[in-house]
Design brief:
Number of helices: 3
Order of helices and strands: EHEHHEE
Helix content: 10-25%
Radius of gyration: 15 Å
Shape: globular
Largest sheet: 4 strands, mixed
Number of strands: 4
C-alpha cells in the first residue's frame, strides 16, 4: 500500500529555495504502479484546490483539484475504487493557502482509494 497524506500536490510544486525541481508525475506514478502487487492500493488525501488549477496555483496555495489527481492516477493505470467526504469542510476558502491562519488545520480535504488492476482486470 502507498499512502500519501496532504502531499500529492507537492508532485506539482517547485521551489528554488528548497531545491525542489519539477517532478515528472507520469514517471513517478509509473514507479508506484510497478512497486505495487496486482490488487495493491494507493490512498490519496489532500487539500481541495480550485477546478483546473495549474502548477502556479499549487505553488501559491498548496492545494490541488481532485479531478487532477483522478485524471493523473487513471492515466497511470490505477482504478478508483473508493472515496470519502469525511474530511470535507464546506466553510473552507479554497483560494487561500493552506498556511493561512484562518484555514490552517481546517481545510477541505478529499480522500481517494485507487487500486492497481489484477491480471484479470487488465
Amino acid at each position: 500500500m502507498i499512502f500519501t497524506n496532504q502531499t500529492f500536490h507537492d508532485i506539482y510544486w517547485t521551489s528554488e529555495c528548497f531545491q525542489m525541481e519539477r517532478i515528472d508525475e507520469r514517471a513517478m506514478l509509473a514507479n508506484w504502479l510497478a512497486a505495487l502487487k496486482p490488487g495493491g492500493h494507493v490512498i490519496v488525501i489532500d487539500h481541495v484546490g480550485q477546478s483546473g488549477d495549474t502548477r502556479e496555483v499549487v505553488d501559491a496555495v498548496h492545494r490541488i483539484d481532485p479531478t487532477t489527481v483522478l485524471a493523473a492516477m487513471q492515466a497511470a493505470g490505477f482504478v478508483l475504487v473508493g472515496q470519502s467526504d469525511m474530511l470535507r469542510r464546506s466553510d473552507d476558502e479554497i483560494t487561500k493557502s493552506i498556511f493561512d491562519e484562518s484555514v490552517r488545520g481546517k481545510t477541505n480535504r478529499f480522500m481517494m482509494k485507487f487500486q492497481k488492476p489484477t491480471e484479470s482486470e487488465r
